[in-house]
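Re: weekly structure request thread

Next one in the queue (252 aa):
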Amino acid sequence: MLHTVGSPQVSARATAPAAVVITLGASTGQRDLTKTLLSRLPVFEWGSLAALEMLLDFPNTLAILDVRAPATAQDIQRRVSALRLAASVTVLVPADVSATRLFEAGATNVLSRDLPLRELGARLEADRRWLSVPPQRHQWETAETHDRLSEWSEWGLQGSQRVLLRLFLERPGPFCINDLRRLLGAADRPLSLRTMRYRMERVEPLLAQFDLTLRRNYVWGCDSYEVVPVDDRSGAFRPPMMWAPFRKMKMA
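Done, posted below.
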């Protein structure tokens, strides 16, 4: 059985879920594990910003990607590559899906959905124990960044921008733009390249509040980005016009 545990990352009273379940596809023709083994865990559909924020709130929480509908190995591989930006990922797949490409994409573990419930639960609990060691904070993640994010959220910072900014500040890069498109897109389609770049431009002025910027690494077919200090200008975004209400904000 997976249990809820305390986490020092958010507050002394906050509790971290043992894992966060993200489903891919309807459970037609497959047993619905969210009604049995996973019934006590928070369950979200792919594309949920609430799921991503929960994983960011508790960095040592396991993400369980439950593939409940037929999908190609390539599609699942791309989902794993995207979701691992936010958390360690264990994938539950139909028995006929090969695990090799999913491990290559960064999965922590790959388990068959057809395993006996007791064995499947024990394996998931083992994955959770392995992740229970508190992670090291990323170099840009400080008390100041948390305070600023809370303040900006109260001012109306949009969910997708908040998630994107937290990824850049709290997770090590580089970040493949195609992974970000899938992570922030819907289950049936990723964000368009134009939309993704626009959202990144909207985040750039916020990073500037911490004397940080995005550096673009050009790779044919898959550009990636990493957060660097503003004095490292090589390959950096051209600073866009700052947008209200952040135009007049300055570092304290």
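The longest strand covers residues 19-24. The domain at 143-229 is CATH 1.10.10 (Arc Repressor Mutant, subunit A).
Next request, please.
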